[in-house]
From TrEMBL, chain A:
This is Simple sugar transport system ATP-binding protein. The keyword Transport applies. InterPro entries: AAA+_ATPase (IPR003593), ABC_carbohydrate_import_ATPase (IPR050107), ABC_transporter-like_ATP-bd (IPR003439), ABC_transporter-like_CS (IPR017871), P-loop_NTPase (IPR027417). Keywords: ATP-binding, Cell membrane, Membrane, Nucleotide-binding, Repeat, Sugar transport, Translocase, Transport. GO terms for molecular function: ATP binding; ATP hydrolysis activity. It comes from the Bacteria. GO terms for cellular component: plasma membrane. It comes from Paenibacillus catalpae. It is a peripheral membrane protein. PANTHER family: CARBOHYDRATE TRANSPORT ATP-BINDING PROTEIN MG119-RELATED, GALACTOFURANOSE TRANSPORTER ATP-BINDING PROTEIN YTFR. Residues 7-243, 260-502 form the ABC transporter domain. The keyword Cell membrane applies.
UniProtKB/TrEMBL annotation, chain B:
The keyword Repeat does not apply. One of its GO terms (cellular component) is plasma membrane. Keywords: Cell membrane, Membrane, Sugar transport, Transmembrane, Transmembrane helix, Transport. The chain crosses the membrane at residues 6-26, 33-54, 60-82, 89-107, 136-158, 189-208, 214-233, 240-261, 267-286. It is a multi-pass membrane protein. It comes from the Bacteria. This is Simple sugar transport system permease protein. It comes from Paenibacillus catalpae. GO terms for molecular function: transmembrane transporter activity. Signal peptide: none annotated.
């Protein structure tokens, strides 16, 4: 007997202009299984799933749902076929309540008095509790945490009768504890006979929850296998296309003298919310300090304060023996603080300018005479930096927007490192980079450490933080709630801190105060 | 007490045109489109209503003509902003300049011809003897009563109906609304046209009730005040009612001080509403500096479905 798949995609090709995102991909998934679609950033996973949910249309290829050939032209078509997708950037209207978001597409009953709303809220709560997805249904979305928002999204697909549920990188915004909770929900969905597809690049997750695994690389689906037939190492090799070099632990260094002392710092975010609350920590010479934490707990504001982009209200920052100027970018540059911003194309580089101009942003004062830039000298200086940092570019005048993410990041590092900084604030330095480029960035960071420079590494990638940092600080609600040395840090312990759970000893201490 | 009633009555009568224009603007902006053409639409509505009434003597026809002309201009704005994704501010300013110019040209022959008494009043004689309430509500005209009803209907529509929910969604997050099967472009067209009709009606109301003679540029910036009122009212019809009457009262007070024969030059008195506009904008901006403004999040941003996200 032929086994029927709940979803089958055959020979799918998707082109964006001249770029081929998917190249003759065959993908199948069965009902009652969790199928992981594994691949690096840019491997084409999300594009595949967007075609299944009607956001994109395939250039060519066929899709079968429960053995029947279908055409999915819009998200509406996908919904009718029972396909629901939870996007990485949630599709929720911030000002509406959770319940209103869930019933948004409903066309029935024009009039919606309080009684009708109440009935719907109960209906939604019933679905939510059945799958262990609790959230306040009558509060507006902007008041919910990211984890709760994701639950709203999942309930939304269920409410609309989806039996094929796609989750795009679902754990990238969750704490480890929230992720575990999500996995329980997924297992329950599976038990009810629904097909669950998750896209991810995290191997541990794949091994923890999936039944079948498909691996994509450079737009092609290279392997499909059962989880029981494979292991993490093999998956890593298949995903990257080469054996990963085992990571050497960093040589330990003697602790230098304190370089950066942050004391009792109070900082307010844009809408008057207190972003940093009595923040205290130190960074010593020649060490990498990792800052772990769930996004939105003050990381952004911390980076901005240290680089002069934001003012602080109380407390002090001492850098290299003297007080740091409040809210002065130039002060930070002159104090030799380098900055690798969170979004390199937004606040790191000017996309439509060329290499030379982008390299000059922090040193144009030195590199000009009588107020005019010394263009010939600057060109040869840029050329030498491009060679030294191995930036692959067609020319020095190419708009940097056209470079790949990895080369943009190398260019940014070239500019920052050339300033001979004492200290670097690096925010998500490897976000959106492939494995090769990530390794390059990690090498640059460890080289700087080797030269006795200090780095504050703010990252959501826990593996990266644990691999590179001499010390790990965990930020929660604008405070450093935990500090762990390299050897003693475990994912579980960091996860607890990230969720705001403090040591018992700490809690008692607080009571005494 | 008497003076209070008089001021309230005057505030309602000069605030009602503002209220119509603000309600129209709220509908348009809730759908995510900026509407700066109010001044031009009001002038066109006024001049067309005046011409129609002088020629036919039919009030209903005059009001319909005002709505029709502003609906046509609304379609132009919608075509520019929704279909062509042109800059919404430029399109709105163009409508204002166009409406100001064309209304001046069309109105040359009818300047100074009175249309007084065109709008019948609703006489509620049983209210006569009730203090305060009787003074305010006993002899209002039908357009004012219509504006009361409109406020309530719009409030319920926005907050209590499925279409109202869709309206809130398309102004805040059009991609999400689209994924949920709501036709963003169609709805935006609809709300721009309906909202524009209300703004045209505001012009007609100004002419037929408040100052019943056509004079070139007779709105005197009321369209712009309506744009500011949308923000004061935070896109809410009920608050719009109170804000409109507040500004109506300011207008009246200036007029009254003039009547008393004060030494202050009348030009300064006429400035009062505009100065208060600036002061209130500054005050609200300062008070809400730490809060999201409450404006529809995608206001002014054209929606393109096929964009990669």
């Amino acid at each position: 007997m032929l086994e029927t798949y709940s979803v089958e995609m055959q020979g799918i090709v998707k082109q964006f202009g001249s770029v081929t995102a998917n190249d003759h991909v065959d993908f199948k998934a069965k009902a009652g299984e969790i199928h992981a679609l594994l691949g690096e950033n840019g491997a084409g996973k999300s594009t595949m799933m967007c075609m299944l949910s009607g956001v994109y249309r395939p250039t060519s290829g066929e899709i079968y749902i429960h053995g029947e050939k279908v055409k999915i032209r819009s998200p509406k078509d996908a919904m009718k076929l029972g396909i629901g997708m939870v996007f990485q950037n949630f599709r929720l209207v911030q000002t509406l309540t959770a319940a209103e978001n869930i019933i948004l597409g409903e066309k029935t009953s024009f009039w919606r008095g309080p009684g009708w709303m109440k009935k719907k809220q109960e209906e939604i709560e019933a679905i939510a509790t059945r799958f262990g997805l609790t959230f306040p249904v009558d509060r507006p979305i902007w008041q919910l945490s990211v984890g709760e928002q994701q639950r709203v999204e999942i309930v939304k697909t269920l409410y609309r009768g989806a039996d094929l549920i796609i989750l795009d990188e679902p754990t990238s915004v969750l704490t480890p504890g929230e992720a575990d909770q999500l996995f329980e929900t997924l297992a329950q969905l599976k038990a009810e006979g629904k097909t669950v597809i998750i896209t991810t690049h995290k191997l541990k997750e794949v091994m923890a929850i999936s039944d079948s695994i498909s691996i994509m690389r450079k737009g092609k689906l290279t392997h499909t296998m059962e989880k029981s037939e494979t292991n993490e190492r093999e998956l890593a090799r298949l995903m990257v296309g080469k054996e990963l070099t085992a990571q050497k632990p960093l040589a330990s260094r003697p602790k230098g003298k304190p370089l950066l002392i942050v004391d009792q710092l109070d900082v307010y975010a844009d809408h008057g919310r207190k972003a940093l609350n009595q923040m205290e920590f130190q960074v010593h010479e020649g060490e990498i300090v990792g800052v772990a934490g769930v996004a939105g707990n003050g990381q952004k504001e911390l980076a901005e304060v240290l680089t002069g982009l934001r003012s602080w209200h109380k407390g002090s920052i001492t850098f290299n023996g003297s007080p740091l100027k409040n809210a002065s970018v130039r002060g930070a540059i002159e104090a030799r603080i380098a900055h690798v911003p969170e979004n390199r194309m937004k606040s790191g580089l000017a996309g439509s300018l060329g290499i030379v101009d982008n390299l000059l942003f922090k040193s144009y004062r030195k590199r000009s005479r009588y107020g005019f830039l010394r263009s010939r000298a600057n060109r040869s200086w840029s050329q030498s930096l491009v060679e030294q940092f191995d930036v692959r570019t067609p020319g020095l005048d190419t708009p940097v927007r056209q470079l790949s993410g990895g080369n943009q990041q190398k260019l940014l590092f070239a500019r920052e490192v050339d300033q001979d900084p004492l200290f670097m604030v690096a925010v998500h330095p490897t976000q959106g980079l492939d494995v090769g480029a990530t390794e390059g960035v990690h090498r640059l960071l460890t080289e700087m450490r080797g030269q006795g420079k200090s780095i504050l590494l703010i990252s959501e990638d826990l593996d990266e933080v644990m691999q590179l940092s001499d010390r790990i600080l965990v930020i929660y609600n604008g405070r450093m709630v935990g500090e762990l040395a390299r050897g003693e840090a475990t994912r579980e312990q960091i996860g607890l801190y990230m969720a705001g759970v403090r040591d018992e000893g700490d809690a008692e201490e607080e009571k005494v105060i | 007490m008497d003076i209070f009633v008089q001021i309230v009555v005057a505030a309602i009568s000069s605030g009602t045109p503002l209220l119509f224009a603000t309600l129209g603007g709220i509908l348009i902006e809730r759908s995510g489109i900026i509407q700066l053409g109010a001044e031009g639409l009001m002038l066109m509505g006024a001049v067309i209503a005046c011409m129609t009434y002088l020629n036919t003597g039919n009030l209903a026809l005059a009001l319909m003509a005002a709505c029709a002309i502003s609906a046509v201009l609304g379609v132009v704005h919608a075509f520019m902003c929704v279909t062509l994704r042109a800059n919404q501010i430029v399109s709105g300013l163009a409508l204002t300049l166009f409406g100001t110019g064309l209304s001046a040209y069309l109105g040359k022959s009818i300047t100074g011809q009175p249309v007084a008494g065109a709008v019948p009043k609703v006489n509620l004689n049983f209210l006569e003897n009730v203090p305060v309430i009787g003074g305010i509500f006993a002899h209002l005209d039908i357009l004012t009563w219509f504006s009361f009803i409109l406020v309530i209907v719009l409030h319920l529509y926005i907050h209590r109906t499925s279409w109202g929910l869709h309206l809130r969604a398309i102004g805040d997050n059009p991609p999400t609304a689209d994924v949920m099967g709501i036709r963003v472009q169609t709805f935006r067209y609809g709300y721009i046209v309906i909202g524009s009709m209300l703004i045209g009606l505001a012009g007609a109301d100004l002419l037929m009730v408040y100052s019943p003679t056509w004079i070139e540029g007779m709105t005197a910036g009321r369209g712009w005040i309506a744009v500011a009122l949308i923000i004061f009212a935070r896109w809410n019809p009920i608050r719009a009612l109170f804000c409109a009457y507040f500004f109506g009262a300011l207008d009246t007070i200036g007029f009254r001080i003039q009547l008393i024969g004060s030494e202050i030059p009348s030009y300064f008195l006429k400035m009062i509403p505009y100065i208060v506009t600036i002061l209130v904008l500054m005050f609200l901006g300062w008070r809400n500096r730490n809060k999201p403004s409450g404006s529809p999040e995608s206001l002014g941003i054209p929606y393109i479905r096929e964009q990669r996200f």
